[in-house]
Write a structure and sequence with these properties.
Length: 276
C-alpha cells in the first residue's frame, strides 16, 4: 500500500469518527432538551396559576406519570381536613410542641385579637376545607367547598362543668397528588382550658407540616392570631407559605394553607381551612 493511499484511508477514518461524534453529541443535546416537555411545562404553569383544565391534568399524568405523583391536585376533591383531640386534667403535662422545620413553637408573631362577643360565640365553623380561600379577605375562590370528615369533641354538660380541664386539638389539611399520594399535611395545634361555660386560657399553639414530599418547601408563617379569653368561645387562626418545586420543571406553585379552629367553653370545637 502506498503512503498516499494510507493517508487517504486515515483521513477518511478521522472524518467518520468526527461525524459519529457530532451525531452522538447532537443526540445527547436533543435528549437533554426533550427532558423538559414544553406542553407539560405549560400545563404546570396553568396548574400553579389556577387556570388549569382537566386536559392539563390528563396530559401531565399520561406523559409524566412520575411527575404526576409529585404534583398537587388542584381539584377540590383532593382537599380534606380532619381533626383529633385529647382531654386532660390540670396538672397533667399533655402533648408537647412538635419541633421541626420552620420553628413551629415560635410565638414571636402571636397576635391576640378582641374576645368574641356572645353573638359571635354562638356561631360555628363548618368543619370543611376549601381550595383557595384567604381568611384575610372576603373574596370567594372559584374552587368548590369540599365536605370533610367531621371530628366533634363535645363533652356532656355535667362532665364539662365538673372541673376546669385542658384539651388539645390538632387539625390538619391534606393535599393529594394527581395520582392520589399525599403531598403534605398542614397542621395547626391548639391547647385550651375550659370550665364548662367559658374558655378560660390558651395554652401552646403552633403549626407544622407532616407527610411532606421532598418537593415541599416550607416558607414563613404569615398569620398567627387568637381571640381573647375568657370568653364563651375563642378562635385560633394560622396561615403558612408553602412552595412546590419539582426536578426539571422548577418551582411551579405557591400555596398558602390556613386553618381556623373555634373552641368553646364546654370543650367542643369546630374548624375550617384552605389549601391556599
Amino acid at each position: 500500500m502506498t503512503v498516499q493511499r494510507r493517508h487517504r484511508i486515515a483521513t477518511a477514518f478521522v472524518g467518520v469518527v468526527t461525524a459519529a461524534t457530532f451525531i452522538v453529541g447532537s443526540t445527547s443535546a436533543a435528549s437533554a432538551a426533550d427532558a423538559v416537555d414544553s406542553e407539560v411545562a405549560a400545563a404546570l404553569q396553568r396548574v400553579g396559576a389556577g387556570t388549569w383544565s382537566d386536559s392539563d391534568l390528563t396530559l401531565i399524568k399520561e406523559r409524566e406519570p412520575d411527575l404526576a405523583d409529585q404534583i398537587a391536585d388542584p381539584r377540590s376533591s383532593a382537599v380534606t381536613i380532619e381533626a383529633s383531640a385529647v382531654k386532660y386534667l390540670d396538672g397533667e403535662i399533655g402533648p408537647q410542641p412538635v419541633e421541626g422545620e420552620g420553628n413551629p413553637a415560635d410565638t414571636s408573631d402571636d397576635e391576640t385579637l378582641t374576645a368574641l362577643t356572645d353573638a359571635e360565640s354562638a356561631g360555628t365553623l363548618d368543619n370543611t376545607a376549601t381550595a383557595g380561600t384567604d381568611p384575610t379577605t372576603t373574596t370567594t375562590p372559584a374552587a368548590a367547598t369540599t365536605s370533610a370528615k367531621t371530628a366533634s369533641a363535645s363533652l356532656s354538660a355535667s362532665a364539662a362543668a365538673a372541673s376546669t380541664a385542658w384539651k388539645w386539638v390538632d387539625v390538619w389539611y391534606s393535599h393529594k397528588s394527581l395520582l392520589g399520594s399525599t403531598i403534605y399535611r398542614y397542621h395547626t395545634y391548639v391547647k385550651f382550658q375550659y370550665n364548662g361555660t367559658k374558655v378560660t386560657a390558651w395554652g401552646t399553639r403552633y403549626d407544622y407540616l407532616s407527610n411532606e414530599q421532598d418537593i415541599v418547601q416550607l416558607g414563613d408563617r404569615i398569620l398567627n392570631q387568637k381571640t381573647g379569653v375568657p370568653a364563651s368561645s375563642a378562635t385560633s387562626t394560622m396561615k403558612r407559605h408553602v412552595e412546590l418545586c419539582v426536578i426539571s420543571y422548577g418551582c411551579y406553585a405557591n400555596l398558602y394553607p390556613y386553618i381556623k379552629i373555634k373552641v368553646k367553653g364546654n370543650g367542643s370545637y369546630t374548624y375550617s381551612g384552605s389549601g391556599g
